[in-house]
Amino acid sequence: MSVFSYAKKYKKQLILGPAFKLMEAIFELTLPLFMAYLIDSGIREQNISVVYAATLYMLALSILGLLCVLVCQYYAAVASQGFGTELRLAIVKKITQFSHTEIDEFGPDTFLTRTINDVNQLQLALAMLIRLVIRAPFLSIGSIVMAFTINTSMGFIFLLTVPIFSFILYILMSKTVPKYQQVLSSIDELNTVTSEQLTGVKVIRAFANEKKMEDKSAKVSEKLANRYIDMTKLSALMSPLTLFMTNMIIALILWVGDINVSVGQLQTGDIVALINYMLQLLAALIVVANLVTIFVRAFSAKKRVEEILNTTPKVQTQPLDKVLPLESENTLSFQDVSFHYPSSSQDVLRKIQFDLKKGTQLGIVGPTGSGKTTLIELIQKFYLPTDGTILLDNMNLLDLTTGEVRESIGYVSQKSVIFSGTIESNLKMGFPNATEKDCWRALEWADCLEFVDDLSMPTAENGTNFSGGQRQRLAIARALISQPSIMILDDALSALDYKTDLAIRQTLARLDFIKNSIIVSQRISSVKEADHLLVLNQGEIVAQGTHQNLMKQSKFYQQIVTSQEKEDN
Ligand SMILES: Nc1ncnc2c1ncn2[C@@H]1O[C@H](COP(=O)(O)OP(=O)(O)OP(=O)(O)O)[C@@H](O)[C@H]1O
A GO molecular function for this record (predicted)? Predict the structure, then answer.
């Protein structure tokens, strides 16, 4: 999809805006003629009524011109702001449809630059298109035509000015545009470093790493500043160069004009009019050059924005088609499933094979980086397996919509994300139609009543006004509110004390609507009562069974248990 399709709605502004600007340009072109008339027939002939009439005409033309400009600016503002808003909404909508694969591929920081900077650039280009794209070339051509009507040799001076001036501008532009691309990539880099440092500010402080981070920030900012200065050094040349050219050409007009006046072919007023036309021509050429820069920048912004708009998510988010009955003997089956992330060809899960029987609880344990979260993400269709088959309720996950899969699952991630708003708005994310009663019931199940006494309690960005354990309990309540059939807790009990951890697991076992639960944990005590345990190491299942069986049969499992017992003692 092209970004232009978002401008289609503003056809009226795109046609009428330039039309009004064109009228203003016509008024502007006729002004020097009245000036010549005022000088030659009014001032020189000392005819006061001509002076009054010419002044009045000039005033009227200026007022009409001003009105036209105002209308055009209004249309340009309406169209460009409307276009920008819609484009930004479309980008955000598209990003929310992206699967984890595209989010990994693009990286969150480039989303920010593309949604803000690039859309601004496109907005500016549209506003300029309305305001200047017809006016500037019209004024350039008009000035040359008017010069020819006054005097042919002067017309040729005007004609010659265009290629010389354009050549100088072209050289400057061709050097600045690539430098602008470098500036853009530096902005991306600065965004990444800044957002990383802001979100990790507490960790940075805890490790007394402020100086190191300041240096990193300074280095990236300096790089951006240098690239920017490098670019502006060239554009700064534009002003003195054009001023020099303008004065040289005016000197030429005065010199040739003087000869023509002395032989009676031109009058003083004509010379004033010609100088005015030349100033208009040069100003219009500078505008054209600026327009070229703006459009070149907008072109690269267009490519970056369209890259997002035209990316088809590997996993399409589709609405709920049917609710899974979950009546098969096995709720979930992994059949020889392997997976590697798009950024690397190395498998992080290899030949995973297990069944989750209806009505049972599954525990997954394993050291960090063993692939536990990846396995959970595959169940929810955030990524697709690179090999093997996943069956949910005896149906291939590939044949189910994301709506069907995710509707059945209540998921609490390792990092409990709480959004700014209220307790109620956070809970309702999981179930928009929830009543107050539903909210309180979910809060009770997740053991939140001791710190929540009002649904309208505010939640700060990232839930920073709650402790880590409270955030995890709120996230569990949010997952439980829709009464899902399968509950997945990905290391979501780790920030809780043993007593609360146990209380929540007992509640999960007691709730009738939960047919199966999957608990991922590094803490054996959180999973040892599970009906079936998977022990993962380096992407492979190294043992599976009940806690008792594993204690007898798996050395690896025994080692984990022993090391944790030592830690606890
Ligand atoms: N988005 C990603 N892109 C590329 N590699 C990834 C990505 N996420 C995880 N990995 C890699 O996949 C492997 C398994 O990671 P995963 O998060 O599944 O492990 P885990 O067992 O859940 O670890 P932990 O207990 O520390 O959360 C790791 O080697 C990790 O580096």
Answer: ABC-type oligopeptide transporter activity
Domain that holds residue 351: 330-568
Residues 559, 450 share a domain: yes
Pocket of ligand 1, candidates 370, 411, 416, 488: which has the most ligand atoms within 8 Å of its Cβ, to mutate? 370
**523 Cβ closer than 6 Å to some ligand 1 atom:** no
Residue whose tokens read 């960790």: 203
Phi/psi of residue 296, each to 5°?
Answer: -65, -45
Quote the pTM value.
0.69
Residue 374 in domain: yes
Whether residue 186 is contained in a domain is answered as no
- Say how many Å lie between the CA of residue 419 and the centre of ligand 1: 24
Q: What is the ipTM of this complex?
A: 0.96
Q: How far is the CA of 415 from the centre of ligand 1 (A)?
A: 14
Q: Which ligand 1 atom sits closest to the C-alpha of 104?
A: 1
418 with 456, same domain: the answer is: yes
- Going residue by residue through the chain, which has 569 residues, state the pLDDT in tens, using 9 for 90 and above: 788 889 888 999 999 999 998 899 889 888 888 888 888 888 888 889 999 999 999 999 999 999 999 999 999 999 999 999 999 999 999 998 888 888 888 877 788 888 998 999 999 999 998 888 788 888 889 899 989 998 888 899 889 888 888 888 788 777 877 887 788 788 878 888 888 888 788 778 877 888 888 899 999 999 999 999 988 887 777 778 878 888 888 898 888 888 888 777 888 888 888 898 898 888 888 888 778 878 888 888 899 899 999 998 877 666 666 677 777 788 899 999 999 998 788 999 999 999 999 889 999 999 888 999 999 999 999 899 999 999 998 889 888 888 888 888 999 988 888 898 999 999 998 788 889 999 999 999 999 998 998 999 999 888 889 988 899 999 999 999 989 999 999 988 777 788 888 888 888 888 989 989 999 988 888 888 899 999 999 999 999 999 999 999 999 999 888 888 776 66
Looking at the structure of the chain, the number of domains it has is 2
Burial 460-493 (b: 16+ CB within 10 A, else e): eeebeebeebbbbbbbbbbbbbbbbbbbbbbbbb
The answer on 356 and 300 residing in a single domain is no
Residue located nearest, by CA, to atom 9 of ligand 1:
374
The reply to whether 189 falls in a domain is no
Q: Is residue 347 within 6 Å of ligand 1 at its C-beta?
A: no
Collapse the DSSP code of 222 into the 3-class scheme (helix H, G, I; strand E, B; otherwise coil) and give the result: helix
Measure the CA–CA gap between 122 and 84, rounded to whole angstroms: 7
For residues 489 and 517, is the Cβ–Cβ distance under 8 A?
Answer: yes
- Rounded CA gap, 226 and 236, in Å? 15
Distance (angstroms) between ligand 1 centre and the Cα of 375 equals 10
